[in-house]
Amino acid sequence: MRNTFYIGAAALTITSEKPLYMLTQDERFLHPVLGDPQIRFEVDIIHPSADATDAWEEMGTYAAVAYALHGESERRTYPVKEGALPFYSIRDGRGSVRLYCDSEDLPFALKTRRPWTYIHIEELLLDAQALILHASAILYRGQAILFSAPSGTGKSTQERLWRETYGEDVTVLNGDRVVLQKTPEGFLACGFPVSGGSTDCNQGAYPIACIAVLARDTKDYPEEIGLTEKVRAIYSETSVPSMIPAYASAALDLMEELAQNVRIVRYHCTMEPSAPRVLHDMLFAAVDGDTDTDADAGSVTTLDPSDLKEALLQSFTKELPFSLMVTGYSMCPMLFPNRDIVTLIPCAKRPPRPGDIVLFERPDGRLVLHRMHAIKTEDSFLAVGDNQIATEEVSFSQILAVVSDFTRKGKNHSVDRFPWSLYRLFWRKTFRIRPLFIKWLKKW
């Protein structure tokens, strides 16, 4: 029996004297998704040879695995539980793996064990510039969102909540494992034929919107983390061949590159239906505006209007507030991008007045979050970002919502309470000398 399986950018051709034990999900990996493979492996499962028999007599109850890496031979030993399948694996630098199975156990093993359990797949994929991450991977409109955390933290719960909240827009790539494949276009989330206790296991390759490292909390909010913390979080949930120095080093280098090029956040979350909305709004409801903090550059916090306006109005129809992650720098120093989450309420509940932060729609369809600076006419007002000096005239009819409060690192702040009420008054009164403050803040 001979089959070629495609996992990420690797192709594994497995030849066996007996039919392999395969599940339906294994058959999904018989077709490539990334074109020609970067690397190919030949895997033979055969009856024991004299070499293998001698090795077993020498090692007793331990399996010896010999590798030829960069011209150096390295040996690892694995304890074999009583009754488990013994095998002897030799791998050379040309990408071949030979599994010698005990002749008496071979028929039983082929009927009960899939090949992924004993061919050291993590080493093979590292040669193809890929990692195996313990994560639940969902697909939202063609982009992958990965929930990574130790077992029992809530990966499956977040997956379920996303399905319930966004319906047909959400499908599952894998409920327990995902391959992070490096490609010339960037890292992709790819299917893996093993899914732990999950029944969701599919083939495919998708751009990664975010890796959310889950942390149970009493509130839902994302936290930006540093490079070292990102690598540590990925390392703890990745299959790493730590006993082989060359592979351990290659894995860490790949993780660092992943952390530098893929968005990774620590997502403090509840198990409540509100959890998906907060992460969704951070990833998809907002689009970065001009990050230049020069006031004359006219930087604005712009929002993608395609889904945001509809979602906002639907929430207001249900008499619910709407949460939105801030992006762009136009509302600094009060609101910082990718950290602070504002709560929007309809104007009927809070009639906008000078000093309030409002969400309005420009004539070109863009949605903008700025502060109402002053009343211009009976039907219009002047709006400006806290990090700007150029105002724009906006009609009252363009206002969609008003900010009532915001959340920073899990703590809620009302815009009407100290110190933010004082900040609002001070920032408006000092508008004429604002360039001096902005210049000082840029240095700070």
Verbal overview:
The protein has helices spanning 24-27, 50-59, 106-112, 121-127, 155-166, 227-236, 245-261, 275-285, 305-317, 420-429, 434-443; strands at 2-7, 10-16, 39-46, 62-69, 72-79, 87-92, 96-101, 130-140, 143-148, 170-174, 177-183, 186-190, 205-216, 221-224, 264-269, 302-303, 322-325, 341-345, 357-361, 367-375, 380-384, 392-395, 399-408, 411-414. It is 25% helix and 34% strand. The termini are far apart. It has 444 residues and is of the alpha+beta class.
What key phrases describe this protein's structure?
elongated; seven-stranded mixed β-sheet; 444 residues; Umud Fragment, subunit A; 3 domains; nine-stranded antiparallel β-sheet; 24 strands; 11 helices; alpha+beta; Phosphoenolpyruvate Carboxykinase, domain 3
In brief, what are we looking at here?
This protein is of the alpha+beta class and 444 residues long.
CATH topology title of the largest domain = Umud Fragment, subunit A
Number of helices: 11
What is the 3D shape?
elongated
Report mean pLDDT, rounded to a whole number. Answer: 78
The CATH class of the largest domain is: Mainly Beta
Task: Please estimate the helix content.
Answer: 25-40%
**Structural domain tally:** 3
Q: What structural category arises from helix and sheet content? A: alpha+beta
As a whole number of angstroms, the C-alpha radius of gyration is 28 Å
Q: What characterizes the major β-sheet?
A: 9 strands, antiparallel
Name the CATH superfamily classification of the largest domain: Umud Fragment, subunit A
Tally of DSSP β-strands = 24
Assess the beta-strand content as a share of residues: 25-35%
Low-confidence stretches: 52-86, 286-303
Distance between the termini: 67 Å
- CATH-scheme architecture of the largest domain: Ribbon
